[in-house]
Design goal:
24% helix, 6 helices, 2 domains, N-terminal domain of MutM-like DNA repair proteins, binds zinc ion, alpha+beta, 264 residues, 23% strand, elongated
Length: 264
């Protein structure tokens, strides 16, 4: 599983506390294939702010330079207020030495990336916590395709930030079958889905995201939404709404969990 909006937003919030205002004294790139950032881009620069768009983190530096980062499957941004030890660096792909402490980009699977510039952000669809995330725009997106609604929710070029976990959870809350063709959703279903997405994302943010295998917050502690799942990974468990059994299917290559009785 990949960090989604609530995980990346949580990382952003922690990094704002830990690294904003600090200066980069040194930079080490340990995976040049995925980390397209050089010493010249960052050394001597001050970290002005951290932002997020969809699942992408934006590190704003002095000198009008932005870094963008995607964690993909297993990327982590960890902040160490102390000196680094060998065990901290087993999966380190980039190390920023700051005027106080270190910011380390870890990545076991090595699909995550860091780049200079905004190019990747421009490809993203609507951000759920923005004014553009409204019924009119969602109707426009959904009516164009008969693809299953769950796959449309996860399409980052349409809506940015929702991945497999929160698509499953939001569709359950909205009582919509994940396989339903997007262009068959009624206006009241779209309204329910919009509200459910916001509700689930806010709830996941409250628990600071889902920690399964890799996701850690920058202080190396875990999120807790995995203890609150409604249907995700609940195959054959009782539906929390109607009590019948949760079913698992594969949709677009991804595990999909839903209640065939109350999701229509
Ligand atoms: Zn049910």
């Amino acid at each position: 599983m990949m960090p989604e909006l609530p995980e990346v937003e949580t990382i952003k919030n922690y990094l704002k506390r830990f690294v904003v205002g600090k200066r980069i004294l040194n930079f080490e790139n340990l995976n040049k294939k995925q980390i397209k950032v050089s010493e010249n881009d960052v050394v001597g620069k001050k970290i002005l702010d951290i932002e997020r768009m969809g699942k992408i983190l934006i590190i704003k530096l002095s000198g009008n330079k932005n870094l963008t980062a995607h964690l993909k499957m297993s990327g982590q941004f960890l902040y160490f207020p102390r000196n680094l030890e060998k065990r901290d660096l087993k999966y380190a792909r980039a190390i920023f030495k700051l005027n106080k402490g270190y910011l380390v980009f870890n990545d076991v699977r090595k699909f995550g990336w860091l780049r200079v510039g905004n190019e990747e952000i421009q490809k993203l669809g609507i951000e759920p916590f923005s004014k553009k995330f409204n019924i009119k725009n969602l109707e426009e997106i959904f009516k164009q395709t008969k693809r299953p609604i769950k796959l449309v929710l996860m399409d980052q070029r349409k809506i940015a930030g929702i991945g497999n976990i929160y698509a499953n959870e939001a569709l359950f809350l909205a009582k919509i079958n994940p396989q339903k063709p997007a262009n068959k959703l009624t206006k009241s279903e779209i309204k329910r889905l919009k509200n459910s997405i916001i509700k689930i994302l806010k709830r996941a943010l409250k628990y600071e995201g889902t920690s399964s295998r890799f996701y850690l917050k920058p202080d190396q502690t875990k999120g807790h939404y995995q203890e609150k799942f409604l249907v995700y990974q609940k195959t054959s468990k009782d539906c929390p709404r109607c009590g019948k059994k949760i079913k698992k299917i594969i949709l677009g290559g991804r595990s999909t969990f839903y209640c065939p009785f109350c999701q229509k």
